[in-house]
C-alpha cells in the first residue's frame, strides 16, 4: 500500500477554516492508496483504494472556490464543482452527492474513468499556479469519494418521477449514453424500455473497461437504481435484427434513442492477422471481463493462456488489454506503438500503472506482419522502427519507418487495439437515418435529432470512439429534446 504524503490532518484543517489562498496552495496533493504492482497483477481487484475521510477533506481544502471556475467549463456536463467540493470540506457528503447528481447520474463511474487531466482538472487554478495538471485539485478522486460514500450508506434515494404521461420511449443500447437518457426521460413520467444486445447492461463499462479499473458491481448498482425508477431493461435484444427501429414505433413507442456505440474493431490489414492467437481488443476484453475468462474453468469462457503478448496501439483500450494480459499470467507483454509516449492517447494514470506493472513499451515501432507456425498459430511478429516526421492532420508528428530497421519479436498472442468504429447495424437496417462517411449517425447538435422523425442518437455512434462523459453529455442533450418533443409533438 502506498504511503500518503505528509500533510495537515483534517482536524487541524478544521481549526483553520479560513485559510488564505497562499496557505491552500501549500497543502500537498492527496495521493490515493493503491495495491502494490507485484500484488495487483495477480488479481483483478481495483488498483486504487480511494481517499480516506481525512484525505478527502484535506484535498477539498485545496480548492480556492473560484468565482468563475474554469473547472466547471472543462466538465462536459458542467457539474458545480466548487459547490460539491465545499460540501466535502464541510463533511456534508449527502449534499455533495446531490450537487453532482444534478447533472451527472454516474459519479462513481466518472470519478474513476473520466480523463480529468484533459477536462475539469486541466483549467484548475491551483494546478496552473503550481505549474502542472497533476497538482490540480483532484476533482475526479473527490467525486469518486462521495459517490462511494453514498453507496456505502445502502440504498440511494430514488429521484422523484413525474406523473405518468402515457408516452413510451425505446432506448437502443445500455452504455453510458443510453443509461443517462433512460434516467432523464423516466423522471419526466414517460415509460422507458432499454433494449440491449448483450446479456448484461452497461456497454463498454461492463464488457470493455476491466474490473481492476471499474468494478462491475458499481455499474450494476447504477442499473439497479434505474430499475427502481421503473425503467424496463430487455437483454439479448439486437435491434435491427430481432426488431427494426420501425417495428419499435409500430409496437407503440413514441420516440427512440439510438446509443449503440462504436463496437466495431478496426484491424491493421497486415499479413497474418487471421492466425490463431490474434484477437481484436474487443474480443479479448469481452472474454476476460464480461465472460470472466480469468476464472476459467470455474466460468464457461476459455481464453488462450499466453506467454508472450504483443498489443498494438497506444490508447486506453491498448493499456487495458496489456494489463489484462498480465493478469491472465503472461510473462512478457509488449505494447507496440508507432509514435512516442507524448502522443499516446491513453490517460496518464493508465500509462503509469501499465509501466509500474511491467508492460514493456516498444515505442516508435510498428508491426509489419504476423508470422505463424505450421499449425496456424502466432509465432512471431515482424516490426519496424519509426521516427517522427512533420505533423499530420491530427496535429501529431507523423511516424515515418526507418528503412532496414525490421526485426522479429517472439510472441504467441497479438491483440489489435488500434481503434473501433461505429456499429453499422441500425443505420444499415434503417436507411432513413443518415450517416457520415465513417458510419457515424448525423444529428443536429443542439437536440441530437437524426434525419428520421422521432429518432434521436448520441454517444459513440455519433461521436466515433470517444469518452464516457461525452456520451453522457450527449445523452443529457438528447433527453431534454426527447422530453420537449413528447410534450409538444413538434419535430
Ligand atoms: P457503449 O458503451 O459502446 O454502449 C453501446 C451499447 O449498445 C452496448 O452495450 C452494445 O452491446 C449495445 N448495442 C450495440 N448495437 C446494438 C443493437 N443493434 N441493439 C441493441 N443494443 C446494441 N472512456 C473514458 O471516458 N475513460 C476510459 O478510461 C475509457 N476506457 C475505455 C476502455 C475500453 C476498453 C473501451 C473500448 C473504451 C473506453 N472508453 C473510455 C470509451 C468509452 O467507454 C465510450 O466512449 C463509451 O462507453 C460510449 O458510450 P455509449 O453509450 O455511446 O456506447
Ligand atoms: Fe471531471 Fe468527469 Fe467529474 Fe466532469 S464528470 S467533474 S469531467 S470527473
Ligand atoms: Fe477549485 Fe480548481 Fe475549480 Fe478553482 S478551478 S474552483 S481551485 S477546482
Overall description:
- With 491 residues, the chain is an alpha/beta fold.
- The chain has 3 domains: 145 residues, Alpha-helical ferredoxin (Fumarate Reductase Iron-sulfur Protein, Chain B, domain 2); 163 residues, FAD/NAD(P)-binding domain; 153 residues, 3-Layer(bba) Sandwich (FAD/NAD(P)-binding domain), CATH 3.50.50.
- It contains 20 helices and 18 strands.
- Strands 5-4-3-6-18 form a 5-stranded parallel sheet.
- Helix 4 crosses helix 6 and helix 8 runs antiparallel to helix 10.
- The longest helix has 21 residues.
- The N and C termini lie far apart (56 Å).
- The relative contact order is 0.11.
- The N terminus is likely disordered.
- It binds flavin-adenine dinucleotide and iron/sulfur cluster (2 copies).
- The site of one iron/sulfur cluster has 15 residues, from helix 8 and helix 10.
CATH topology of the largest domain: FAD/NAD(P)-binding domain
Let me know the average pLDDT: 92
Describe the sheet with the most strands.
5 strands, parallel
Radius of gyration: 23 Å
Write out the CATH superfamily name of the largest domain: FAD/NAD(P)-binding domain
Strand content bin: 15-25%
Count of helical stretches: 20
Q: First CA to last CA: what distance?
A: 56 Å
- What is the total number of structural domains? 3
- Biggest sheet: strand arrangement: 5-4-3-6-18
Bound molecules: flavin-adenine dinucleotide, iron/sulfur cluster
Amino acid at each position: 500500500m502506498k504511503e500518503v504524503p505528509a500533510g495537515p490532518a483534517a482536524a487541524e484543517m478544521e481549526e483553520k477554516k479560513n485559510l488564505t489562498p497562499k496557505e491552500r496552495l501549500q497543502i500537498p496533493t492527496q495521493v490515493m492508496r493503491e495495491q502494490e504492482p507485484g500484488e495487483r497483477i495477480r488479481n483483478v481487484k481495483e488498483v486504487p483504494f480511494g481517499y480516506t475521510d481525512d484525505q478527502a477533506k484535506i484535498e477539498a481544502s485545496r480548492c480556492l472556490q473560484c468565482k468563475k471556475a474554469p473547472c466547471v467549463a472543462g466538465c462536459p456536463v458542467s457539474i458545480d464543482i466548487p459547490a460539491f467540493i465545499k460540501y466535502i470540506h464541510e463533511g456534508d457528503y449527502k449534499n455533495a452527492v446531490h450537487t453532482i447528481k444534478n447533472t451527472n447520474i454516474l459519479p462513481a463511474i466518472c470519478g474513476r474513468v473520466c480523463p480529468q487531466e484533459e477536462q475539469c482538472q486541466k483549467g484548475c487554478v491551483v494546478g496552473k499556479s503550481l505549474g502542472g495538471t497533476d497538482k490540480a485539485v483532484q476533482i475526479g478522486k473527490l467525486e469518486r469519494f462521495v459517490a462511494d460514500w453514498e453507496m456505502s450508506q445502502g440504498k440511494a434515494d430514488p429521484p422523484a418521477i413525474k406523473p405518468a404521461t402515457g408516452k413510451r420511449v425505446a432506448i437502443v443500447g445500455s452504455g453510458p449514453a443510453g443509461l443517462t437518457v433512460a434516467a432523464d426521460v423516466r423522471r419526466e413520467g414517460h415509460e422507458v424500455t432499454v433494449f440491449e444486445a448483450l446479456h448484461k447492461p452497461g456497454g463498454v463499462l461492463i464488457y470493455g473497461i476491466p474490473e481492476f479499473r471499474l468494478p462491475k458491481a458499481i455499474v450494476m448498482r447504477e442499473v439497479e437504481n434505474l430499475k427502481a425508477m421503473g425503467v424496463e431493461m430487455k437483454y439479448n435484444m439486437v435491434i435491427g435484427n430481432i426488431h427494426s427501429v420501425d417495428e419499435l414505433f409500430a409496437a407503440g413507442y413514441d420516440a427512440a434513442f439510438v446509443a449503440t456505440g462504436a463496437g466495431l474493431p478496426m484491424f491493421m490489414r497486415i499479413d497474418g492477422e487471421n492466425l490463431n492467437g490474434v484477437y481484436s481488443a474487443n474480443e479479448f476484453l469481452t472474454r476476460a471481463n464480461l465472460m470472466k475468462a480469468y476464472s476459467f474453468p470455474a466460468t464457461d469462457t476459455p481464453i488462450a493462456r499466453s506467454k508472450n503478448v504483443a498489443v498494438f496501439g497506444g490508447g486506453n483500450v491498448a493499456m487495458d488489454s496489456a494489463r489484462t494480459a498480465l493478469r491472465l499470467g503472461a510473462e512478457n507483454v509488449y505494447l507496440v506503438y508507432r509514435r512516442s509516449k507524448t502522443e499516446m492517447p491513453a490517460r496518464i494514470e493508465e500509462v503509469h500503472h501499465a509501466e509500474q506493472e511491467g508492460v514493456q513499451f516498444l515505442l516508435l515501432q510498428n508491426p509489419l506482419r504476423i508470422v505463424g507456425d505450421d499449425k496456424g498459430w502466432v509465432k512471431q511478429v515482424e516490426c519496424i522502427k519509426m521516427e517522427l516526421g512533420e505533423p499530420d492532420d491530427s496535429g501529431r508528428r507523423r511516424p515515418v519507418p526507418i528503412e532496414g530497421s525490421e526485426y522479429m519479436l517472439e510472441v504467441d498472442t497479438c491483440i489489435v487495439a488500434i481503434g473501433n468504429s461505429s456499429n453499422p447495424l441500425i443505420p444499415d437496417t434503417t436507411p432513413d437515418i443518415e450517416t457520415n462517411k465513417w458510419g457515424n449517425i448525423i444529428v443536429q447538435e443542439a437536440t441530437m435529432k437524426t434525419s428520421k422523425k422521432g429518432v434521436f442518437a448520441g454517444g459513440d455512434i455519433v461521436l466515433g470512439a470517444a469518452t464516457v462523459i461525452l456520451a453522457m453529455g450527449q445523452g443529457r442533450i438528447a433527453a431534454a429534446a426527447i422530453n420537449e418533443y413528447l410534450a409538444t409533438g413538434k419535430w
